[in-house]
């Protein structure tokens, strides 16, 4: 029986999970092939540039998800507060309430970070920038908005790491709740 190859989105999701589990350096073509069910030749057919191209494509895919679900609502919404609330909901959902590693953040910490420095810097820069703009539209001064945005993204990333390190996903939800309050949003229900 002939096996059906996954579509590109499915393939990128599978490759991303290998990178999440093993890191860039530890994710061998053999591990990626085992996870995707594709042989080396098929993988190189999809990604002629090998593992580096795979990682770049995974970063671009994640970036696209954040563009649609986090950055655009922050940037384009008529109600900046609703956009900020949406950012927290989407972030919580994407990171599965702290049970999923931020792959872009993980790549930023590895030796291979220089391969993807531009993509990583752009991703985090846009997140901080769009959040700062939304906070400014919500009434914060420009300097305060920039500082709060930087603090919020750092808190989200740090909470992901800490929640994973101590195996307590609730820590992530608590950190999101405190960060929302720090940004002047109502405490509301737990995210």
Order of helices and strands: HHHHHHHHH
Number of helices: 9
Which structural class do the helices and strands define?
Answer: mainly alpha
Beta-strand residue percentage? under 5%
What is the helix fraction of residues, given as a range? over 70%
First and last CA, distance:
45 Å
The averaged pLDDT comes out at 92
Number of strands: 0
Major β-sheet, in short?
A: none
Shape type = elongated
Round the Cα radius of gyration to an integer and report it: 18 Å
pLDDT < 50 stretches:
none
Plain-language structure description:
By secondary structure, this protein is mainly alpha-helical. It contains nine helices and no strands. It has helices at residues 8-26, 29-36, 40-46, 50-76, 80-94, 103-109, 117-137, 142-165, 169-182. Helix 4 packs antiparallel against helix 5 (80-94) and helix 7 (117-137) packs across helix 8 (142-165). The longest helix is centred in the first third of the chain and has 27 residues, at 50-76. It starts with 7 loop residues before the first helix and ends in a 9-residue tail after the last helix.
């Amino acid at each position: 029986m002939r096996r059906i190859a996954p579509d590109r989105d499915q393939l990128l999701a599978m490759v991303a999970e290998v990178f999440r589990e093993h890191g860039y350096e530890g994710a061998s073509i053999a591990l990626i092939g085992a996870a995707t069910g594709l042989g080396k030749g098929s993988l190189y057919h999809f990604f002629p540039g090998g593992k580096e191209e795979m990682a770049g494509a995974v970063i671009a895919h994640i970036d696209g998800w954040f563009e649609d679900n986090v950055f655009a609502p922050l940037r384009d919404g008529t109600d900046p507060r609703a956009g900020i609330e949406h950012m927290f909901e989407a972030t919580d959902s994407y990171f599965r309430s702290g049970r999923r590693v931020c792959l872009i953040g993980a790549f930023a910490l590895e030796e291979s970070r220089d391969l993807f420095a531009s993509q990583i810097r752009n991703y985090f820069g846009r997140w901080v920038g769009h959040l700062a703009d939304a906070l400014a539209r919500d009434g914060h001064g420009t300097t305060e908005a920039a500082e709060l945005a930087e603090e919020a993204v750092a808190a989200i990333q740090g909470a992901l790491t800490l929640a994973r390190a101590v195996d307590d996903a609730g820590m992530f939800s608590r950190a999101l709740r405190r960060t929302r309050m720090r940004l002047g949003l109502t405490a509301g229900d737990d995210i």
